[in-house]
Every structure is written in C-alpha cells, then in structure tokens.
Amino acid sequence: MSVGPPVGLGTPLSVCETGRDLLDRLAVDQRVRGGRLISILSYSPIRRGLVQRKRDKILTYHVGHRAAAALIQATGISRRPPCTRCTRANGPWEQCVVVQTNEALQATKGACANCHWNNQGGECSFRTSHSGRAAVPLGSLGHPPTSLMETFSAVHRWEEQMVEFGMPGVAARVKTHARMTAPELVIRHAEIREELNMAQAALHHLLEVLQHLGSEMSEVTMLLSLGRVFDSSREAATASSADVVSPGAPGSLGSSATDTDDHERR
Q1: What is the CA radius of gyration of the chain?
Q2: What ranges does the record list as Low complexity composition bias (predicted)?
Q3: Which of 181, 201, 208, 251 has its CA 20 to 30 A from that of 173?
C-alpha cells in the first residue's frame, strides 16, 4: 500500500485540475479510491491548495477517510464562520471547508474536511445543523437563529454558483441579507413597511388626481354637448327665417294691395 508524500504549503493548482489529479499527486492507492465520496469528488475541480496549520507536519493519505478529507479540502467551499471544532484548531488545515454538491452532501452530511480527516465527521457542528435543518428549517421558536447564514448553510454554495454563472450582483445581495442578524432583520422589515406605506400613499394620491381629471373631463364633455345643441337650434332658426322670406312673397303682397283697392272703390 502506497503512502502519500508530505504536502506542506499546498499542492499547486496548475498541476492538479481535478480531484483525480490531486489523488495522483498524493500517491493515493487505487484500493483507497473506491469509496463513494472519493468517487464523487474525483471529478470536481480543484479550488485551493492543502494549506496546513503546522507547515512542517507530514500528512499521509493511505486511509480512505483521509484521502476523502483531502478532496473535500481541495474541492469544497470555505465556511465562515468555521465549525466549532475548527475554531479550536481541530484538523490539519487552516480553512474550514465543506462540500458543495448535493450528492457529496448526502455522503458527508455537511461535515467539514478537518472533522472528516480525524474520522469525526459525526461531531462536526455543520453536520449537526445539516441533519436538523429539515425538521426545523427556521430554528425553534424559543431559540431563533442569530443569522440566516446559520440556518441556510447552502447559501455559500449557491453564492459561488451564481458567481460562476456570471451573476455576482445577485450573490452579493443574497450574501448581505443572509448575514443579517435578527435585530437587523427587524429594522429592515420596518424600513420596507415604511417604503410600502409611502408607495401606497403616492398611489392613493394618484388615484385622487385621476378622479378629479375624470370629473373635469365630464364637465367639458357636457359643455361641448350643450354647445352643439345650441348651434343646432340656431341653425334651425336661421333656416325657418329664410323660409318666411321666399321668392313668392312679392306676388302675395301685390295681390293683397289689389284687394284693398277694390274694397275702397266699393
């Protein structure tokens, strides 16, 4: 069985592109690579070198869980703040790193690489929160989470994926809100409610203006209708006057005068 060489300041990323390259670099035996977690992470891209807390300490990777821990450390994402054990300098590496894919999460239950290295993944505080998240997604009512980041541990993974998709602005906004504490969330909630109230007041004022304009339009329409009626009446009166003064009128007047003369002669 092969024993991996010491890795002090970190395996160069230019040499190792995937987890399989890192296993080759660490000379991990083929029989150790048969584990499910190792098989999953062998195709993941390398994100960082294996930077140790104690640079002069020699690490060996001839045990399955240690090889898997090295893959988690090199391919996963850094957790901030770290787990409880990493805070106490548990494990060989400086950073607290967890896996990011759903398949790998099912295998590790959220435990970090340092805890996995010591074969103590079950004691990692991230694994505990990962297991209890499905039952109580928002924390118990008596002990609410101090921040959204503690409840939704997948935010870091989603954040990095959004950056890879070319949407860093979305990730930055999610990161900002996810790190807000409970008092900050209450203040932000009040600010949003105030903004909504202002928007509602502006909308109400706009509706009143529209109603006033509608009333004025109705008055203008009524005046225009009355004007048209007046014009029609005037045109009718003018036409009647024209009918009274017609071409047959002089003959009628002459006939009346003749009748008057005849009456005087008699």
Answers
A1: 45
A2: 246-257
A3: 201
